Amino acid sequence: MKDLRSKRVLVTGGHGLLGSHVVDRLRRGGYASIAAPKRTEYDLTRRAAIEQLFDDCKPDVVIHAAAAVGGIGANMANPGLFFYANVIMGIELIEVARLREVEKMVVLGTICAYPKSPPMPLKEADLWEGYPDEVTAPYGIAKKALLVQCQTYRRQYGMNSIFLLPANLYGPRDHFDLQTSHVVPAMIRKFSEAARDGNPGVVLWGDGTATREFLYVEDAADGIIRATENYDKAEPINLGTGVEVPIRELAERIARLTGYKGNIVWDSSQPNGQPRRWLDVSRADREFGFRATTSLEEGLRKTCRWYAETAGAVPTAEKQPVRL
Predict the structure, then answer these.
(1) Would you tell me which of 140, 210, 295, 313 could form a disulfide with 272, CB atoms 3.0–4.6 Å apart?
(2) Which domain does 236 fall in, by range?
(3) Catalytic residue selected from 139, 153, 260, 307
(4) Domain total for the chain?
(5) Per-residue DSSP letters for 88-109?
(6) Which residue has the higher pLDDT, 318 or 111?
(7) What are 103-123's pLDDT values in tens digits?
(8) Is 324 in contact with 39 (CB distance < 8 Å)?
(9) Residue 114 a catalytic site member
């Protein structure tokens, strides 16, 4: 599997934040046979649609980047939807891939699968050491179930399936709807609009003490392709930077980059989410030489610039209620 250029590669979610950058990375590498259908073409929660997708694309390799995702507010509003959509998409997709004898299956998990308060940094061996944070548990558990499927299919059927755990992603092409977006795009939009309108204060959820690890989407795409080409083991792999940042510091950075000079008001009546997220990324480095190269400052600057250049034309939840 070291040369994907001779393979037919299917990228689910290929028009979303992560999937679109994975497709770009494949094309830059000279991979000519890439299928990245839009979510409106195939409903991946339906077995018949997945079978039709495989009939149409005949993939040798599948990179499963499709997901129903969102920030804390979206997880609180849609726990059942996020659990069902993510678990059923993955289960059916992996099963059809097995039946069609796909050469390699690459499944994207989530850092939300980790227990709420394990030792830091988060090591892959810690995945089963407790229950995830209650707010994002339905999404995280749905994804973690796919890890079990990948491992058991490898053991029983010899299926070459790998499972990757990216840190919180951000970057150009994200969606910026305030009701559903993740923390970075939500802050960029809030601070940009406040700077434009001269608002004296911006309200953010929580108290700012929680920490997160953020991975620039182009780095994530590079890690996924490296793993696809070079990693063939059952153990899951973290993809991240190995650097955690408090949400309060993140807010201050984004306010500066967007030119906002007003007050930041923390609403501690709203949840922080998981107290800390910080990945041990040594396995990815050791197994396939992946190290993130984009600093948080550089990545935020690129993302803020992209938003400023495309504001008014960026995806919103009204146009895209669930990103699959």
Answers:
(1) 210
(2) 4-173+214-242+275-294
(3) 139
(4) 1
(5) HHHHHHHHHHHHTT-SEEEEE-
(6) 111
(7) 999 999 999 999 998 899 999
(8) yes
(9) no
